[in-house]
Amino acid sequence: xxxLTKSPNWARLQDLSRQHQQTxxxxxxxxxxxxxxxxxxxxQNILIDYSKNCLTEDVMEALFGLAVDMDLNGAIERxxxxxxxxxxxxxAVLHTALRNRSNSPVFVDDQNVMDQINAELMRMRTFVEKxxxxxxLGYSGKRITDVVxxxxxxSNLGPKMVSEALSAYAGNNVRVHFISNVDGVEVADVLRPxxxxxxxxxxxxxxxxxxxxxxxxxxxxxxxxASAFDERAVKNHFVAVSTNQQxxxxxxxxxxxxxxxxxxxxxxxxxxxxxxxxxxxxxxxDQFEELLMGAHDMDRHFRDQPLADNAPVILALVGIWNSxxxxxxxxxxxxxxxxxxxxxxxIQQADMExxxxxxxxxxxPISYQTAPVVWGQLGIDGQHAFYxxxxxxNVIVPADFIGSVESSTPVRGHHENLMANFFxxxxxxxxxxxxxxxxxxxxxxxxxxQDVAKLLPHKIHEGNRPSNTLLLDRVDPRTLGALIALYxxxxxxxxxxxxxxxxxxxxVELGKHLAEGILEEINxxxxxxxxxxxxxxxxxxxxxxx
Length: 546
Ligand code: F6P
Description:
Blueprint: H1 8-19, H2 25-31, H3 35-38, E1 40-43, E2 46-49, H4 57-69, H5 72-81, H6 95-98, E3 107-108, E4 111-112, H7 113-132, E5 146-150, H8 157-165, E6 175-179, H9 184-191, E7 199-204, H10 211-228, H11 234-237, E8 238-242, H12 245-251, E9 258-260, H13 277-283, H14 285-304, H15 311-326, E10 330-336, H16 343-355, E11 373-375, H17 379-383, H18 387-392, E12 399-404, H19 414-431, H20 435-444, H21 449-459, E13 467-472, H22 477-498, H23 509-523, H24 532-544
Parallel strand pairs: 5-6, 5-7, 7-8, 8-9, 10-11, 10-12, 12-13
Antiparallel strand pairs: 1-2, 2-13, 3-4
Helix pairs in contact: 1-4, 1-15, 4-15, 8-13, 8-16, 13-14, 14-22, 15-22, 16-22, 20-21
The site of 6-O-phosphono-beta-D-fructofuranose has 15 residues, from loops.
């Protein structure tokens, strides 16, 4: 495999990016009436329109050439087959095996991991059915009404996002709540209205050492004890999802009530494992299986389709092109679908924790940009908050617009209104409104020559702002599974092309480690192990406390 900077297609793309500095997207549409057809595709109930990016046949050819130079096809196969592509931790990367509904064997160290995966799925199903059918009861014999997931990062964002997104499929069996923050306000707020006799806590932590999660879990346990007064109640009210059997047992959770995951599942890719347990408890196991099925559909697409028809690969290449052409350092994700209100936060972790890297796989510093800053929120709210910058700011922010043909909860007249905004925004970003058009508009409104001249520069939208539009049939479990997997594979493809290890996260360790020392200082006497600013801040915090 070539180094990225030695790839002839990389050099070609740099040339092309210079040539296209003055190209305006609206001219590309005028020149080619077939542009939508040429630059859109459908994959698993998702229409993906990438025509509103500055792409030409030359650019596409060079981008696909780059993917070939970087052996993307080989890398895809290595991931699916269980090769140890997480090179800094010497691990396979097999979230795809967790949702391998075709059940074809996948080997890690000569062992078919499908056996363990299927066994764990079966344990999850049995447990979920027990809880949902009221066979599993609280310590006082009452049924479970509320599931509280305690976890952070990948052990929180996915189950939370999916539970919100699919609430229309939930029924009235159990409610679900999430605690991630070690700020006591969150645990207090979540627990206040709940009845300890009817709560099931899922302590979700791959390592079972994450301090935020362990602190919240201990508080939850104390809260239960304040009502149950009997340690035996823990077994009715606590289950764990982890790889760390010893720590689970030390916490006092019966390991019969522990669901396993494996070291080849990264936290941010773990929603398909038992980390998805709160989803299954909330929606029922069949719906959870549909979610897996949707992701598996996208896996097959990613593995089988040629690069030129491959949705995740195309989105990856478009992202790389936008960072080359515009120097774009950020990527905004804008769902026009209330159920997807936490989708951006979920993808933010998946993308930035995976590809926010400064050295290549061999450890050499790299000169090119890697993961963008991923941000955003529900698009319709964003329109009245930050879209001003997207339209007229002096930075280019490539945007992903995500909407659905059908609302999952139709309310007369609303969806049409929402989607009119959705389509209008991508058009406005692409097309803009030029001097001539603004002038004609202002004159038609009857403004004086002087007022027209004054307002003119402020009202011009240059346009030429790139976006992708993802149009789902609707947010249902299968389509959502496919959507998540689409982004996962986009991130994977970019990591391969940038030649980085997308599966470790060493960058989060330093802060964690320092916090341990500072906690001791907060609880003790001395504070002078740091720089003057950090010492001063900690001292001030301690001196101002009552
Ligand atoms: O600190 C980052 C991180 O390790 C994430 O990668 C992970 O999703 C999160 O913390 C939670 O980790 P755990 O599941 O081990 O508690």
